[in-house]
Specification:
By secondary structure, the chain is α/β, with parallel strands linked by helices. It folds into 2 domains: 162 residues, Rossmann fold; 67 residues, no CATH class.
Length: 235
């Protein structure tokens, strides 16, 4: 069994149709797993189901071998699952340091030491620690969001479109930071539209179509799969 696993998940919103159907996503510690697919495929829905923001109609969520399907999102965060949404993922009116302090609200001790470790991982945040986050560039704000999510020392980090709306150069920088986070033995699940670049840094990937697993394999296998390339990677 994988460290963090959504097994045969079926879920939707309210009384509407199912968005994901018998969908399975697995990730181990020290691994990056990309969730790919066309718009409306259910990528973000699968991630939200694993976080507990959606109730499953069927299927299970396992964390370190324990079924956590019935516990609240807040309790999943306490277990060690951290989530960075695509939008509204920072407090724009607060400073960089204040954002990190809020990220550490569950900590009972070691706040200063953890903030220093975040500064080591993202040096620009140390330079900008007293600056209002709303004044930062898009790439810098994403680093704040990542740093804030890491303040609780999660074992699982879930990222929804971490490179959305940034330039190719900033995208490469953010992926480098994600690789650094992987080296700290965090399990990373990443929903990403930049499929080729995401697969280049991912250990494994899943391609969803209409809420179901269509393809899965290592990043290299999916990059070299002719049908995946033709349908999802632009040739």
């Amino acid at each position: 069994m994988a460290f963090f696993e959504g097994n045969k998940m079926t879920a939707g919103y309210g009384d509407g149709p199912d968005i994901i159907s018998s969908c399975s996503i697995k990730v181990n510690r020290g691994e990056i797993v990309a969730i790919l697919g066309p718009n409306g495929a259910g990528k973000s829905t699968a991630m939200k189901a694993m976080l507990g923001l959606l109730n499953l109609k069927s299927g299970n969520i396992f964390f370190d071998g324990i079924d956590i399907s019935k516990i609240s999102p807040q309790d999943r965060v306490k277990q060690g699952v951290s989530f960075v949404p695509q939008t509204k993922n920072v407090f724009a009116e607060l400073t960089v340091r204040e954002n990190l302090e809020i990220g550490g609200f569950l900590r009972k001790d070691g706040l200063e030491k953890m903030i220093e470790s975040i500064y080591d991982l993202f040096p620009i945040l140390n330079e900008k620690k007293s600056q209002i986050v709303g004044q930062l560039s898009g790439g810098q704000r994403q680093q704040v969001a990542l740093g804030r999510a890491l303040m609780s020392e999660p074992s699982v980090l879930m990222l929804d479109e971490p490179t959305a709306g940034v330039s190719p150069i900033v995208m490469d920088e953010l992926f480098e930071h994600i690789l650094k986070i992987k080296k700290t033995n965090v399990a990373i699940i990443m929903v990403e539209q930049n499929a080729k670049q995401a697969l280049n840094i991912s250990d494994r990937g899943y391609v969803l179509v209409t809420g179901k697993n269509k393809f899965e394999g290592s990043g290299e296998q999916l990059l070299n799969d002719s049908e995946v390339r033709r349908s999802f990677l632009g040739g």
